[in-house]
Amino acid sequence: MNAPLEQEASKASSISADWANLSAADRIRAIAAAQRDGLVATTSFGAQAAIMLHLLKENAPEIPIIFIDTGYLFPETYQFAEQLIKTWDLNIQTYNPTYSSTRLEALYGKLWEQGDKGAEKYSVMTKVEPMNRALNDLGAKTWLSGLRRSQSSSRADRAFAEQQKATLKLYPILDWTDEDVANYIKKHDLPSHPLVGQGYLSIGDWHSTKPMTEGRTAEETRFDGAKRECGLHLPSDQQDFQI
Hints:
Layout: H1 3-19, H2 24-34, E1 39-43, H3 49-59, E2 65-68, H4 75-88, E3 92-95, H5 101-108, H6 115-137, E4 142-144, E5 161-164, E6 167-170, H7 178-188
Helix pairs in contact: 2-3
């Protein structure tokens, strides 16, 4: 490992240790105080997005929040996003794929139906590429994300901080349980995504998201259980794209 990589790994390890005994609010305040420039957050306006957005609003409202609009989100997601942006005056920076949904399907068909390679190409074109642009445009060095360990087996061993290519990724609510989530929502009377009441646990693009039904596990509600990560949150050793 070369010197810069060793320094980055050491920084991530140090933050993870420091964050272990802090609250989510203190974690966000600490990184916002330590890093004035190059700090961004992301949101999908999904099932539990209001939690991180509320934490950011209350503790570091100046942080730009990147929203990747794939063009394939549920109508309810756009409505939910509009509600939160207006009500909380969020600093949202929206990025779209280079290819519109119409153009993408005209040239490549429904990639999400074309096996693993098609799904991977779809993720890169609609999520990874616009995220790369957003990070570059905003000069992002550190990225706050609302991932939680209890959401899936692929996230169970995540540390609070990890280096993802050139970007340091931090997870302020990584150790929150489902009970923690429910308690925070109740305490602050947070608005709920409209599809949550219809049995949706995790909400992404309409074509790869299903409600929780009898006989289906939570992980099977996204991508039919074939995977959980769209490409933006793969562990560092599984990434083959630049971010």
